[in-house]
Amino acid sequence: MPLKPPYLSRIEQMGHLTVWDVDGAYIRGHIDEEFTNFGQHYRFSFIPQNELWIDHEAKQNETRFFIDHLLTEHRLMAKGMPYNKAIEEADRVERRERIRAGDVRKLTRSGKQLPNPQQVHEHLWKKLENGISVWIVNGRLVRSVFDIDFTAGGHDYVYEFVPEKEVWIDNDIEQEERGYILLHELHERNRMAGGWSYSKGHVESSRIEYHCRHHPALLHEALSAEGWE
User: Fold this and answer.
1) Mean pLDDT over residues 208-226, rounded?
2) Which end of the chain has fewer CB atoms surrounding its CB within 10 Å, N or C?
3) So what's the pLDDT on residue 4?
4) Is the residue at 111 inside a domain?
5) Could you tell me if 31 and 5 are in contact, meaning their C-beta atoms sit under 8 angstroms apart?
6) Which of 50, 77, 101 delimits the end of a domain?
7) Residues near 23 by Cβ (< 8 Å), separated by ≥ 6?
8) Angle CA(215)–CA(28)–CA(160) in degrees, nearest 5?
9) Is position 126 within any domain?
10) pLDDT at residue 58 in the model
11) What is the pLDDT confidence band of residue 16, given thresholds at 50, 70 and 90?
């Protein structure tokens, strides 16, 4: 079966570059499970050269940050700069825009205090019998204040700012996709708690996530195996 185009709407035309709002869930399920909040050709070869793709946001309040990031990344990589260098510069540009927007001041009282991770909690999704709390968090504030590369979800074994025994799910993830992200994070955390390295746990969790995206009927059973009842 041929893949459907992932385009939802055109956001903006910037010279020769077209910025598209795309169906990130479809891309992660059928093209590349590592596609994150946005992407461009020199990072993801399936994206046409003169296009910038931004995952459709549940909250739709970070588009300008992502465009600024992509413009920098695309320009530098088109000149031959490797991705690991280009993303550092793109992150700096994006971080400046987030500071200008006031996100950092909001969580630090104009820099007078360290941010409290509980300030990004939106609501408790569920507390599991093993003591793990799964929180829906304000992804924009997490990226602005704690880690600009935070995407989709995370937990205390990967991010030092996530409190002990917490799993975070980005509120920017659409409701119908959250179960797959939850499965990835719970599986990865459980394996790392058992001594696995992050790289090994991430690869295995991505494989299971991708399998369940293609076989949704298996999702509930897979979640139950990770302690989600």
Assistant:
1) 95
2) N
3) 79
4) no
5) no
6) 101
7) 6, 7, 8, 56
8) 110
9) yes
10) 67
11) very high
Give 194's contacts (C-beta < 8 A, 6+ positions apart): none
pLDDT category at 33 given cuts 50, 70, 90 is: confident
Asked if residue 142 and residue 48 are part of one domain, the reply reads no
Per-residue model confidence (pLDDT) at position 85: 97
The C-alpha atoms of residue 21 and residue 17 are separated, in whole angstroms, by 13
Full domain range(s) for residue 43? 7-101
Alpha helices in 38-170 (DSSP H): 63-78, 83-100, 103-108, 139-141
Q: Are residues 36 and 78 in the same domain?
A: yes
- Residue 55's H or E segment, with its range, is strand 51-55
- Are 185 and 198 contacting, i.e. CB atoms less than 8 angstroms apart? no
The count of domains in the chain is: 2
Q: In the listed set 101, 129, 154, which residue is the last one of a domain according to the structure? A: 101
One domain, residues 122 and 80: no
d(CA 51, CA 217) in angstroms, rounded, equals 34
Rg (CA), the chain: 18
